[in-house]
């Protein structure tokens, strides 16, 4: 199941000691190394991208929109476009949104090198301010964790209200655990994974400090309860590797 793989530089953003560690931002520096960063930081990412694209394409409907909210470099959007070729659908539009101008700029460059088969629109905006409509599939790929916790229910409810009958939400997140022993073990395993991918302890610790200022994870149970409370008919855990999960939620 081939996917579009954007060219990327090696992530060395935290390789040197920093006198001050600012909160993590999706700026031009991060955009330049993002694909390398996420593939070396998220266990199972190489599997997640084509599988999320396949799920979105599988549940796509004629005359509908597919949203990639927090699209970063557009990798999943372009993978969905590719996966849609296996289904005989008409009038599908892909809408990819990110609030980082550097990411959207790189999305457009990536799309220009890709043979698109469907209409794709890249939008630089806050996903909390975007109207969701005629959605047959919505992807949130490690995006909700960067949204202020107080805004998460409201955002997901707006997504639900803008989804067609039979539509799906594909939600991938880093999670935490109520049991502190399990939480500690999962963090330790995640850090071991990053070390195995070439990150030093200095890089791991400095990036963790930067992320802790902006990335606030929920537990799996919190995600499941929230989605059920909003009205999704079913919520299924279809992927987990250490403290990274992906959920499939569907609407009547």
Descriptive overview:
- By secondary structure, this protein is α/β, with parallel strands linked by helices.
- 41% of the residues lie in helices and 23% in strands.
- Strands 1, 2, 3, 4, 5, 6, 7 and 8 form an eight-stranded mixed beta sheet that branches.
- Strand 7 (234-241) and strand 8 (244-250) form a beta hairpin.
- 36% of the residues are buried.
- GO terms for molecular function: carboxyl- or carbamoyltransferase activity; S-adenosyl-L-methionine binding.
- One of its GO terms (biological process) is tRNA wobble uridine modification.
Please name the defining characteristics of this protein.
alpha/beta; 23% strand; S-adenosyl-L-methionine binding; 252 residues; CmoA; single chain; 8 helices; carboxyl- or carbamoyltransferase activity; Rossmann fold
Summarize the structure.
S-adenosyl-L-methionine binds at residues 45, 70-72, 98-99, 126-127, 141, 208. The protein is an alpha/beta fold.
